């Protein structure tokens, strides 16, 4: 079927060699024409009749017509067969509606003069998607965009599988970005839950894989795909920012408290092991309270010197 068409090498000849052949044909035809005319002039100068040697009164016209026909039929059409291919470029050849092959080698070439040629770039190209507004897996509206690096690896598929492979890449890239965004939340409070913001490398790999599946039919290889813009939609951005700040504050407080409890426990153990002072339960509770206040307070603690009680 036509949909399964794949790239194959096309017939070609070195353009300089063929140029020499065409030049030889032109020179040969010109020499033959000149020699024929010169021979006729010699006969006429001698007073001989052309019909005695060439068999007709229209001999000169026939020679000229033969040379002209050769130039028209052979030389002039062959000139359209010359073309050049730049590095990282391919020329797709079609003869009377049939794909006959692709020329990838750079240089000056000659091929079937009746073949139409379309140049396709094989260079790396970037596609910067526009910012798309979509709901993530949690239903929160977010803005997302991506950069896709791609390259044509099968010129036949790119030429014949779709009408415009560049437009196809753009549309399918935006579709894949939308499909990826609705499968993951923007952010997740749990470390083991994947999110767009939490695992950028895995998200990039998933986007590249999905794009490659979508663009395989066009002969395009996706080399890299990464998110270039990711943010909450403006209508909820402030609320989500406050939530993130609150979460960060809670996490910081939790870490401070855990550290303070560890330090208090270590201090009590050291006092108990070295038997520096005997503390009853009430004084231990007071000491724990004072240490926790000092360690968890946001302001600098003011020391209070206890000089003893007024009454013994």
How would you explain this protein's 3D organization?
The chain has 312 residues and is α+β, with helices and mostly antiparallel strands. The chain folds into three domains: 2-120, no CATH class; 125-232, 2-Layer Sandwich (Tetrahydropterin Synthase, Chain A), CATH 3.30.479.30; 237-296. The protein has eight helices and ten strands.
Key descriptive features of the protein:
312 residues, alpha+beta, four-stranded antiparallel β-sheet, rod-shaped
In short:
With 312 residues, the protein is α+β, with helices and mostly antiparallel strands. The chain contains eight helices and ten strands.
Q: How would you summarize the topology of this molecule?
A:
Layout: E1 13-14, H1 15-45, H2 51-54, H3 59-79, E2 82-85, E3 89-95, E4 98-103, E5 107-110, E6 115-121, E7 125-128, E8 132-135, E9 141-152, H4 155-160, H5 165-181, H6 200-215, E10 220-232, H7 234-274, H8 281-296
Antiparallel strand pairs: 1-5, 2-5, 3-4, 3-6, 7-9, 8-9, 9-10
What's the main sheet like? 4 strands, antiparallel
Average residue-wise pLDDT? 80
Considering DSSP H and I runs of 4 or more, what fraction of the residues is helical? 40-55%
Number of strands: 10
Order of helices and strands: EHHHEEEEEEEEHHHEHH
The Rg value, from CA coordinates, equals: 42 Å
Shape label = rod-shaped
> Number of helix segments?
8
Distance between the termini: 107 Å
- Bin the strand percentage: 15-25%
**Domain count:** 3
Structural class: alpha+beta
Low-confidence stretches: 52-57
């Amino acid at each position: 079927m036509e949909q399964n068409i794949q790239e194959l090498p096309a017939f070609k000849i070195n353009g300089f060699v063929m140029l020499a052949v065409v030049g030889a044909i032109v020179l040969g035809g010109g020499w033959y024409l000149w020699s024929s005319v010169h021979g006729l002039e010699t006969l006429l100068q001698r007073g001989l009749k052309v019909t005695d040697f060439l068999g007709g009164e229209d001999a000169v016209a026939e020679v000229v017509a033969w040379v002209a026909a050769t130039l028209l039929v052979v030389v002039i059409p062959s000139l359209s067969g010359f073309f050049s291919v730049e590095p990282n470029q391919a020329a797709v050849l079609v003869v009377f509606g049939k794909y006959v092959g692709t020329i990838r080698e750079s240089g000056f070439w000659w091929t079937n003069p009746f073949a139409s040629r379309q140049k396709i770039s094989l260079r790396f190209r970037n596609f910067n998607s526009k910012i798309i507004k979509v709901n993530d897996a949690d239903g929160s509206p977010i803005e997302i965009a991506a950069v896709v690096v791609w390259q044509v690896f099968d010129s036949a598929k790119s030429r014949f599988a779709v009408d415009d492979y560049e437009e196809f890449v753009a549309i399918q890239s935006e579709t894949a970005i939308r499909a990826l965004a609705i499968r993951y939340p923007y952010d997740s409070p749990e470390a083991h839950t994947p999110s767009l913001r939490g695992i950028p490398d895995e998200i990039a790999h998933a986007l590249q894989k999905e794009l490659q599946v979508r663009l395989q039919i066009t002969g395009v290889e996706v080399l890299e795909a990464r998110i270039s813009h990711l943010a909450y939609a403006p209508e909820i951005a402030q609320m989500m920012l406050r939530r993130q700040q609150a979460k960060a504050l809670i996490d910081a407080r939790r870490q401070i408290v855990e550290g303070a409890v560890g330090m208090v426990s270590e201090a009590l153990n050291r006092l108990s092991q070295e038997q520096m002072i005997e503390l009853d339960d009430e004084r231990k509770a007071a000491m724990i309270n004072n240490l926790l206040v000092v360690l968890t307070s946001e302001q600098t603690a003011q020391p209070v010197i206890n000089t003893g009680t007024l009454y013994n």
